[in-house]
Design goal:
Layout: E1 4-7, E2 10-13, E3 18-24, E4 30-39, E5 46-51, E6 57-59, E7 67-72, E8 77-82, E9 91-100, E10 108-111, E11 115-120
Parallel strand pairs: 2-11
Antiparallel strand pairs: 1-3, 3-8, 4-5, 4-9, 5-6, 7-8, 9-10, 9-11
Length: 121
């Protein structure tokens, strides 16, 4: 069964940077839109950034100018770089992707299990 696997979270000091990575655990045919969401304690999950199959990007206002989302289509991977981290960036970050498992398959939405990012002030 295909899963999205995230990596790169951890404890970071305010003002620092981090880079999150995400890729499917198995062989898939194609990955379409991909994105990163986050959920802070007591809050709803929110979009951080998204990237389409042709690399058009979209960012939440809270991270504009500090975050860069990118993808490697050969590796079917997505990355999120956030600079100038703030305490309010503390959250569990989830990878999301629309994946086609085979050439005859339609796209299906997948979520990763999440990776904790904690920013210390």
């Amino acid at each position: 069964q295909v899963q999205l696997v995230e990596s790169g979270g951890g404890l970071v000091q305010a003002g620092g940077s981090l880079r999150l990575s995400c890729a499917p655990s198995g062989v898939v045919f194609r990955v379409n839109d991909m994105g990163w969401y986050r959920q802070a304690p007591g809050k709803q999950r929110e979009l951080v950034a998204s990237i389409t199959a042709d690399s058009s990007t979209n960012y939440a206002d809270s991270v504009k100018g500090r975050a860069t989302i990118s993808r490697d289509n050969a590796k079917k991977s997505v990355y999120l770089q956030i600079n100038s981290l703030k305490a309010e960036d503390t959250a569990v970050y989830y990878c999301n992707a629309v994946i086609r498992l085979g050439i005859a398959s339609s796209g299906r939405n997948y979520w990763g299990r999440g990776t904790q990012v904690t920013v210390s002030s």
